[in-house]
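Contributing new complexes? Match this layout with magnesium ion.
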Amino acid sequence: MSDKIQLSIVVPTFNESENVPVLINKLEVALAGYSWEVIFVDDNSSDKTSEVVRAIAVNKPNIRCLLRIGRRGLSGACIEGMLSSSAPFIAVMDVDCQHDETRLVKMLEELEQDKADLAVGSRYAKGGDTGDFSKTRLAGSRLSTFMAQRLFGIGLSDPMSGFFMIKREKLIPLMPHLSSQGFKILLDIVATARGSLRIAEIPFVFGTRAHGESKMDSLVVMDFLGLLVSKLTDDLVPVRFLYFLLVGGVGLMVHLLILKIELQFFDIGFTKAQAFAALVSMTSNFFINNQFTYRSQRLKGARKLLRGLCHSYAAWSLGLLVNVAVASMIYQTIPVWWFAASIGAVMGSVWNYVMSTILIWRVR
Ligand SMILES: Nc1nc2c(ncn2[C@@H]2O[C@H](COP(=O)(O)OP(=O)(O)O)[C@@H](O)[C@H]2O)c(=O)[nH]1
Ligand SMILES: [Mg+2]
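Output block (do not edit by hand):
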């Protein structure tokens, strides 16, 4: 065994303290005789996962902990972990024993013998299996796999896999183009590489989570769709802005509905009606964004929500002025209420997007 580290295994963790020692034991067995390190990338878990890692790491130089404070997100964690490696080969896997660590040896073989640049652990290749996936999760996984394959012309059987190994020299040039949002780092790598990677598929059986609970929720579907659009538009449209547009669309509906009611039943004039409708849709957008667009930094509890809402009003007040001024001006020349209102709302939104990203949901 040479002293040079051959393989870095990047393991993102979020509240996984119980799984860490289990995985380390398994890696030590599976990779005996190899020169490897494991880099746990923890997003400041409240269960002190990082302290559990460090307590083991003091005695073992091949165990490392990268603690991220004020950031959340699986892809971002994987990217930072991978960037901190100096090994020629880098793997990514879950900490929860769902990824069969014994397959790492086969992956390493493929890359070392230069049979491939990227080895992907596949649940859908012959010999692989999704284990005890629920029916809905299996359907979702199959559908997103199908879409990714069609849209990007990816021949991979399991582009949604979170278990893979890649040559560092092939990965580094792709790094600046990867999105740190979302869950789908492998798909991002493969789509960004545009066919320039030679890929080997290594079948494995998806195991049952050892401890703790899954961090995936049904909204990962949105992450996935966002990634698709952002890749298909050559990163022109950031994922988060897409969410914002989607939420904005709902907001515009709310706005127009309120405005219509006001104009129909109350005699307050267009300008006042537009201002009030904008206030209502701003408020509903705040709650939708908090549940959805910014869910990893979600504000919880009445006090935090109220404070966030007040900050929103403050940040969005200029957008509101822009909105009402533009809408009223247009309404004077073209007195079509929905047209004037929509243009005003869109102008105000661009301001709001920028402000809320900078001020309200800034990653703490
Ligand atoms: N650092 C970090 N790790 C995360 C985050 N979300 C999930 N993980 C880790 O990523 C891996 C995959 O997540 P998991 O909940 O197992 O997803 P599932 O296997 O699809 O159910 C696990 O090791 C999690 O601890 C996150 O926001 N930050
Ligand atoms: Mg898992």
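Reviewers usually confirm one structural detail per submission. For this one: The longest strand covers residues 7-13.
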